[in-house]
UniProtKB/TrEMBL annotation:
InterPro entries according to UniProt: Beta_helix (IPR039448), PbH1 (IPR006626), Pectin_lyas_fold (IPR012334), Pectin_lyase_fold/virulence (IPR011050)
Name assigned to this protein: Right handed beta helix domain-containing protein
Signal peptide, first to last residue: none
Organism: Solitalea agri
Superkingdom classification of source: Bacteria
Right handed beta helix domain segment(s): 149-246
A UniProt-annotated Pfam family: Beta_helix
Length: 360
């Protein structure tokens, strides 16, 4: 048994289904409370549930050992392995590898292939790093088809500040295909978005990752999406302009649950645009479901929905450091399409916030 250093801070009693991580260690723990949820990626198998009576316990998982198809430590090796890998195969980036993508464009991961490293094998294992120093790099890691997985990696861009260093849209991970999974990654330094879900990126699953310092003024999204849908769960967010942002276009939507938003965002945390403008008469995607999250950033509202999701807006069981719902939410949604359930306010910021091994 290995201890998982990713901690949950919620007090709600829930059943935990642990997702298997492919190699030595994972932060994966899909918390599934007995409440109505949208359909999303199913757990591969159920491994081991921890004591759910205390959500401050460290999560414990059992390792699932899978032999990688390719193990690489240089750019040339990584590029070669990805050019040969087939669906179901695994490319493992050495834990101490640092791949400089500056001037090399994008790396495409083929459909069904997993690119992984060892973030979190121990409390100090950062995992393999893929990075650029070019503030106008564009997309760095791209999904070449459905079912691509990025696991246990560090994905670093060139701008961790709020300065407008480039008008180019730089993204760490980019997909326009269904069933993308991002698990246990540290993603930071991207002027546009750490993860960008373009049109067609339906049923994405982004979980147990630390997404931070994506905060360029006017852009700066941890996760951003066009006509895409996603489950966004059990992540830590900090130093983002918006942790999550949706375009508001019909056919888009997200469920955000069990995430922790730390105190240092530079605008509101979770966002869904009104498509074409702000107001109840504008579409704000198909759905927005926000539940069981912790919001510690109080300088701005936690949740802003700038129109009316076609299927509805549902916000419940969240805990806010904000003093009231008025402080925590900025909602344009028509009253007939929104359900604001029971939420808690004026919570105290925990001293034990632990996003796992981190570079910055």
């Amino acid at each position: 048994m290995r201890k998982n250093f990713f901690k949950l801070e919620h007090n709600k009693i829930c059943k935990i289904n642990m997702l298997p991580f492919l190699f030595a260690f994972s932060f994966s723990a899909l918390v599934s409370c007995q409440q109505e949820e949208i359909n999303g990626p199913a757990a591969d198998t159920s491994i081991k549930a921890r004591d759910s009576s205390n959500f401050n316990n460290t999560l414990v998982t059992e390792a699932t050992t899978v032999t990688p198809t390719y193990t690489v430590s240089t750019y040339d090796q990584l590029k070669s392995a990805l050019s040969k890998a087939n669906s179901g195969q695994v490319v493992y980036l050495a834990d101490n590898a640092e791949i400089n993508m500056t001037g090399k464009g994008a790396l495409k991961v083929p459909a069904g292939v997993t690119l992984t490293s060892g973030r979190g094998k121990t409390s100090t294992t950062l995992g393999g790093l893929i990075y650029t120093t070019n503030v106008a790099h564009g997309n760095m890691l791209t999904a070449g088809g459905s079912g691509v997985k990025f696991v246990g990696l560090r994905v670093k861009g060139a701008n961790t500040t709020t300065s407008r260093t480039s008008s180019a849209y730089c993204r760490g991970i980019y997909s326009s295909f269904p069933n993308l999974e991002v698990d246990n990654c540290e993603i930071y330094g991207w002027n546009h978005a750490g993860v960008y879900l373009a049109d067609g990126a339906t049923n994405a699953y982004i979980h147990h990752s630390y997404i931070h310092h994506n905060q360029q003024s006017g852009l700066g999204y941890g996760i951003s999406m066009g006509k895409a849908t996603a489950k966004i769960m059990n992540n830590y967010f900090d130093y983002n302009r918006h942790a999550i942002a949706g375009s508001g276009i019909s056919g888009s939507g997200y469920e955000a649950a069990y995430n922790t938003v730390m105190p240092h965002g530079t605008e509101h945390s979770f966002d869904m645009h009104g498509y074409g403008g702000d107001g109840a008469n504008y579409i704000a995607g198909d759905y927005v479901i926000v539940h069981d999250n912790l919001f510690y950033m109080t300088a701005y509202s936690a949740i802003t929905v700038r129109g009316t999701p076609r299927e509805g807006l549902n916000i419940y069981n969240n805990k806010f450091a904000h003093k009231s719902q008025i402080d925590a939410m900025n909602i344009y949604t028509s009253t007939s399409k929104r359900v604001i359930g029971t939420n808690s306010y004026s919570i105290v910021i925990s001293a034990s916030i632990n996003p796992g091994p981190k570079s910055l």
